[in-house]
């Protein structure tokens, strides 16, 4: 008999959880929104969504022991997908409103767009270009559009941790990947068919 759920959406009080839950269910997943560290560890896979400030998010994760639960699940080989702020939290540190330590699952820094000619936050549809093949990008052609809302971007230490690029005043990493940890700067749950494909691909990752 299959498990009641296969994908835990981590609830740390900052994110559009219901939209992500609905999107995962629409592509065949069995999602559970949870703030229980035990549920996080026992899940087949994890999604870390997020909207808001990096420092507040890390405080919320630490308050309930969710940061350690996520790290433990990753060490056990559970696939993890970070979305928007969730991608940024995967990194070592952020320069948003000071310096804050992240989950440090992907070495690198979160930086602000510093081009005065750009409108920040970066809001709307933009394209991605793959940096290398990965199951997360199956059937997602280069030039596909996704929906972005963010003022900060991730800068991985290792070039091989970049899975896709997007251009907004400069090229920035819009999808990062290291081992079974992946993250997207955009919102797949708001990105129509391409977003569904990406979530469906994540559900197939083992």
Characterize the structure shown:
The protein has helices at 17-26, 37-42, 54-63, 66-75, 85-89, 192-204; strands spanning 7-10, 31-34, 45-48, 80-83, 91-94, 100-101, 106-112, 122-127, 129-130, 145-150, 152-156, 162-167, 171-178, 181-184. It is α/β, with parallel strands linked by helices and 206 residues long. It has a single domain (7-204), classed as Class I glutamine amidotransferase (GATase) domain (Rossmann fold, 3-Layer(aba) Sandwich). An eight-stranded mixed beta sheet has the order 2-1-3-4-14-13-12-9, sandwiched between helices. The model has no long low-confidence stretch (mean pLDDT 95).
Short description:
The chain has helices at 17-26, 37-42, 54-63, 66-75, 85-89, 192-204, and strands at 7-10, 31-34, 45-48, 80-83, 91-94, 100-101, 106-112, 122-127, 129-130, 145-150, 152-156, 162-167, 171-178, 181-184. It is of the alpha/beta class and 206 residues long.
């Amino acid at each position: 008999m299959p498990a009641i759920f296969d994908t835990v959406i981590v609830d740390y009080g900052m994110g559009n959880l219901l939209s992500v839950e609905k999107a995962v269910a629409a592509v065949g997943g069995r999602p559970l929104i949870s703030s229980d560290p035990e549920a996080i560890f026992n899940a087949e896979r994890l999604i870390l969504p997020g909207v808001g400030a990096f420092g507040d998010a890390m405080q919320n994760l630490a308050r309930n022991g969710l940061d350690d639960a996520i790290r433990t699940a990753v060490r056990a080989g559970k696939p993890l997908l970070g979305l928007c702020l969730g991608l940024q939290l995967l990194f070592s540190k952020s320069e948003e409103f000071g310096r804050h330590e992240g989950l440090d699952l992907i070495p690198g820094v979160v930086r602000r767009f510093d081009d005065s000619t750009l409108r920040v936050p970066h809001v709307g549809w933009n394209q991605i270009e793959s940096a290398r093949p990965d199951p997360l990008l199956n059937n997602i052609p280069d030039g596909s559009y996704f929906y972005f809302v963010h003022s900060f971007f991730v800068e991985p230490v290792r070039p091989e941790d970049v899975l896709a690029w997007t251009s907004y005043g400069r090229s920035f990493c819009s999808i990062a990947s290291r081992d079974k940890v992946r993250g997207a700067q955009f919102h797949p749950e708001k990105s129509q068919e391409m977003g569904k494909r990406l979530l469906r691909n994540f559900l197939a990752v083992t």
